[in-house]
């Protein structure tokens, strides 16, 4: 191997990287996790901070006890840490939810006006979480993609012109969870603002992997709303983030109501709190917010530019190692000029994606994801699947399930792990019949070994 592995110190930051997992052979190997786009493992620092905090954990917001005051302070301070991390200015408010999906649902509820036919512009490359929540409340249209799956910016301009004053929001992923393509969000923001509209960035796949600036001196490039999930950035415990203009969110009625959301209530009158409290009904997830703040501190220590650099090198190396494997097709433009996060989607011709994923796990202890990645319309376009097939598949669930295999890297993955992946994929590709007959009807789980 000609590349030097990442400094082991990055691996040392992660809990569980040395865990052994069983193989179908009965042996066990150190697990390789290439499913970081779904969820990352936790930072050790996050787990340590949670354990350190646990003895102080107490009721939040209205308690006068010392522990309550501390709990409240850490929860509220974490908003500033989050805000600084994404360079959001003081005009914004940080609202905590459960995950990105809940954040999209919340924002769609908050922006909904039953008396107006407002338009949401989204794209063909979105995760379902940035598509389905808008559908029942708005007229929705999709900015198209080109033949390589990249966003068609000319179509964005056409649609901005077409819907102009009716557009409530343009909502676009910062990076695709299938192809890893990064969208030029600051240029898009400029364009969207020229039409007097606002931009929401789905940061679920971007924020953990690259530096991000919501507000800069160049205000026309500002991102108006941002959504992301802590569990994809080394901080489990169920926190999602919605950031947006406080003045605007203060003017929206809450979608969930109850304790914490109000200033004054009588039997026939409610005065809501300001945001963020107004939009965080019930007792909040303190541990989740502390975990996120802790993860951000560790990410800052490593440096987001550094992380981006490490992951770009890993991705380029992986592409170079797998692209010439016989029968293997990569479903994105892999040229160096393309700005991307650390995701590679592929298939091995003649063998179902779910079987490839299973073989990688059962034979080599490698975790990857396979399927449609909660972005069916994008996948259908990338795979060139006909609308006729889609219609047939809707009525006949036994028909072939299209999909891909996806590998996605975190800052702690290594070149040696990629070498094992490339070796495994080569072997699978050259011995397809053997592996298909072994795994096609395999009911055994790894618990049965
Ligand atoms: C691009 C993108 N957006 C949104 C989501 C939804 O995130 P969550 O599952 O944390 O709600 C995901 C999850 O994979 C994603 O990749």
* Helical content class: 25-40%
Flag low-confidence runs.
Answer: none
- How many distinct beta strands? 17
The radius of gyration over CA amounts to 23 Å
Distance between the termini: 33 Å
Structural class: alpha/beta
Report the average pLDDT across residues.
Answer: 96
Question: What percentage of the residues does DSSP assign to strands (E)?
Answer: 15-25%
Give the overall form: globular
Number of helices, where a helix is a run of at least 4 consecutive DSSP H or I residues:
15
For the largest beta-sheet, the strand count, sense and barrel status come to: 7 strands, mixed
**Largest sheet, spatial ordering of strands:** 4-10-9-8-7-5-6
Ligands in the structure? pyridoxal-5'-phosphate
Write the layout of secondary structure elements.
Elements: H1 8-12, E1 20-22, E2 28-30, E3 32-33, H2 44-53, H3 66-85, E4 92-97, H4 100-111, E5 119-123, H5 132-135, E6 139-143, H6 153-163, E7 167-173, H7 185-194, E8 199-202, E9 225-229, E10 240-245, H8 246-250, E11 262-266, E12 269-272, H9 286-302, H10 304-322, E13 328-330, E14 343-348, H11 353-364, E15 366-367, E16 369-371, H12 376-382, H13 387-395, E17 404-408, H14 415-430, H15 432-439
Parallel strand pairs: 3-15, 5-6, 5-7, 7-8, 8-9
Antiparallel strand pairs: 1-2, 4-10, 9-10, 11-12, 13-14, 14-17, 16-17
Bound molecules: pyridoxal-5'-phosphate.
């Amino acid at each position: 191997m000609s590349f030097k592995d990442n400094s082991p110190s990055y691996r040392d930051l992660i809990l569980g990287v040395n865990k052994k997992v069983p193989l179908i052979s009965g042996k066990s190997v150190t697990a390789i996790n290439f499913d970081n786009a779904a969820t990352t493992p936790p930072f050790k620092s996050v787990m340590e901070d949670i354990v350190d905090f646990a003895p102080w954990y107490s009721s939040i917001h209205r308690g006068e006890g010392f522990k309550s005051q501390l709990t409240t302070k850490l929860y509220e301070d974490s908003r500033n840490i989050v805000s600084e991390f994404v360079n959001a200015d003081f005009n914004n408010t940080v609202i905590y939810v459960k995950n990105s999906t809940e954040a999209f649902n919340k924002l769609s509820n908050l922006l909904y006006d039953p008396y107006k036919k407002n338009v949401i512009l989204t794209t063909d490359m979105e995760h379902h979480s940035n598509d389905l929540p808008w559908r029942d409340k708005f007229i929705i249209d999709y900015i198209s993609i080109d033949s390589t799956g990249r966003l068609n910016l000319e179509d964005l301009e056409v649609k901005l012109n077409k819907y102009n004053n009716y557009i409530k929001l343009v909502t676009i992923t910062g990076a695709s969870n299938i192809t890893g393509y990064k969208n030029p969000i600051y240029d898009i923001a400029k364009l969207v603002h020229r039409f007097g509209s606002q931009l929401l960035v789905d940061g679920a796949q971007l924020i953990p992997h690259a530096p991000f600036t919501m507000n800069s001196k160049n205000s026309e490039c500002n991102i108006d709303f941002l959504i992301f999930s802590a569990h994809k950035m080394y901080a489990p415990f169920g926190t999602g983030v919605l950031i947006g203009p406080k003045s605007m969110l203060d003017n929206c009625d809450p979608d969930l109501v109850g304790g914490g959301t109000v200033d004054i209530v009588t039997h026939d009158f409610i005065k809501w709190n300001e945001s963020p409290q107004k939009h965080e009904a019930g007792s909040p997830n303190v541990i989740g917010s502390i975990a996120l703040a802790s993860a951000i501190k560790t990410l800052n220590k490593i440096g987001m530019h550094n992380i981006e650099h490490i992951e770009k090198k890993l991705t380029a190396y992986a592409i170079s190692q797998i692209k010439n494997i016989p029968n293997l097709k990569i479903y994105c433009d892999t040229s160096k000029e393309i700005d991307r996060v650390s995701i590679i989607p592929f298939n091995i011709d003649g063998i179902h994606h779910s079987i490839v994923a299973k073989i990688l796990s059962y034979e080599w202890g490698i975790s990857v994801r396979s399927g449609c990645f909660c972005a069916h319309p994008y996948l259908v376009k990338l795979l060139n699947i006909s609308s006729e097939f889609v219609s047939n598949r809707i009525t006949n669930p036994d028909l072939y399930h299209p999909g891909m295999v996806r590998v996605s890297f975190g800052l702690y993955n290594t070149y040696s792990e990629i070498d094992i992946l490339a070796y495994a994929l080569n072997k699978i590709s050259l011995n397809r019949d053997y592996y298909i007959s072994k795994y096609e009807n395999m009911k055994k789980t790894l618990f049965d070994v």
